[in-house]
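Appendix B. Chain record.
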Amino acid sequence: MRMEQVSSLIKIVIGLVILQNSKIPFAILMKVVTGLIFGIVLGVVRYKTKNCYSTTILHSVMNIFGR
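Structure tokens predicted for this chain:
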């Protein structure tokens, strides 16, 4: 291995150790899951109504109450 590769590998390992002791991975996972559910709900509404206006309005409403 070259020195740059070893240095990069060490940085990755140190980063993983730091992340293991924090709540950041859980927060990222929850953000991904929430976004997936949000997207599925909007996709179903768009599929059922056959237009984008309803999903735009629903997205706006969900953003207002989600903050």
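Further analysis of this model is presented in Appendix C.
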